[in-house]
Design brief:
The chain is α/β, with parallel strands linked by helices. It has two domains: 188 residues, no CATH class; 162 residues, Rossmann fold. A six-stranded mixed sheet has the order 5-4-1-3-2-13, with helices on both faces. Helix 6 packs across helix 12.
Length: 360
Amino acid sequence: MHRFAFVIHPVDVKRDAARKYPIAKWLPERWVEHLLMRKEPVVVSRITGIQSLTGATTEGWFIGCPLSPRMMLSLPLDFVYQKIIRCGQIAQELGAEIIGLGAFTSVVGDGGVTIAKNLDIAVTTGNSYTVATAIEAAVLGAGKMGVDITDATVAVVGATGSIGRTCAEALVPQAKSLLLLGRDEARLEPVAEHLRPIARGIVRVSTDLSRDLPGADVIITVTSAVDAVIYPKDLKSGAVVVDVARPRDVSVRVARERDDVLVIEGGLVEVPGNVDFGFDFGFPPRMAYACMSETMMLALEGRIESFTLGKEVSLQQVQVTQELARKHGFRLAGFRSFERALTDAEIEAIRARARRVVAV
């Protein structure tokens, strides 16, 4: 059996820190972050019961890194690296052969390259399978809302990042048009130039989200922003949004104010076997993020290598994870929106409301 570990960290500081330190929910966020900075990484739980369709099994550990997204972006990079590397060292001591980097630990710095150089075990960000599930969710969600990708304007928010860029590359041959959104036009334009030769339609770039995003039918958003970037006014009626970012890119105001759009949490996967994560991170039984699942399937396959590292994800890597998922029994786990499951009836109601708004 090949064993794995996965790094988790507080995304919503007060809520997530309170899972282990209940007093945190009563303290100001900055106080909680100050307390976390003094903490060392710890073993959060042992993960058991993962069993592939092939009969292979694996087990592992969640390792907690006591840094929030804001802390990772504001503290000295060497300090952040030291915390993440210590997580990897704990994993090594436990017997893990591969470790996955979750949420901002896969974004900060050089996307895991420095972490891998300082460890004796393999490292993966999980971004390849995250791309695979984001694309699948976008196409399935669009279908349920009556949106044909081949007749749609697809937008990618955070298009210069590794996940966003590869999602754009996968969808540009299908979409009627593609909109690439980001903060820096000088970085967006080379991505657009790379995609135009394989595009079915026009490829545009924009740094003005509030002006241009309301024209999109299908949106994949995956920025590394600490706070929400998409608000109710930014979405057209009937739009499908796949929010892959953690913390989420879509404001909770959208859930309250826009019952005519479908917002899906990207990258949620059902793990094969009778899985016990030993930790409640707010999902139904057997559910995990795609990045976690990539780490697990590599362990099941015995593919002990630093599979997804750095700021680039290739379509070939995405396809490999799709093949491994089918082989071992990982699958997209329906749809969730703002941390709750969505039924087909609820999605149909969203679609009906969107049709009424458009008709008016």
